[in-house]
């Protein structure tokens, strides 16, 4: 349909192989063409002035940054990226503008809304079982999902406690907040709705030296991931694009 506003996709992946695979996955699972999505790689450029009225919605990808890391351990790039993102997400929440943060969105959106974000509930790289809450089963982005489904993830930080005004949408045995919503249109997931098996294997290769797992365990992690059926989680991206595009 001519005249529809594009989506803004924000990437924090410096590594081309992982960044490009993530971008292609977002396009594929959201069923969007490249002309409907503008990508900004925040590891390569500052965010700049963003007028939310120019965008159907904002999608934030995952990556190796952790909001809860000590400031002195962060690179200059991470510090300015988080400064830009937290300011933007603050405006997103205030305007209740469509937003979907994948993995890193938990830390950034969680920080903005006053959640406790720390390393209590980190999860290893690979497959996990996610269960919807009652609110999750009723949520427009989750209606295509079974009550319990497999997804792929892997993270060092997570939310330990949500503020009262945030709505928990999904949980897992090892991580109490797998997805939540603020207002009507602002979402974050801890698992990766943009990730399929091939994408997970790409990230295992790219991030083998980033401390998520012992490098020698890479092939074992890939083999374990092949036992999971993560077909349902990507419908969240499709629903997001359909609802707001």
TrEMBL record:
Gene Ontology molecular-function annotations: GMP synthase (glutamine-hydrolyzing) activity; transferase activity
Keywords: Glutamine amidotransferase, Ligase, Transferase
GO CC list: cytosol
Domain Glutamine amidotransferase stretches: 51-196
EC number of the protein: 6.3.5.2
Top-level taxon of the source organism: Bacteria
Short name of any one Pfam family annotated for the protein: GATase
Root EC class: ligase
InterPro entries for this protein: ChyE-like, Class_I_gatase-like, GATASE
SUPFAM superfamilies xref list: Class I glutamine amidotransferase-like (SSF52317)
Name of the protein in question: Glutamine amidotransferase
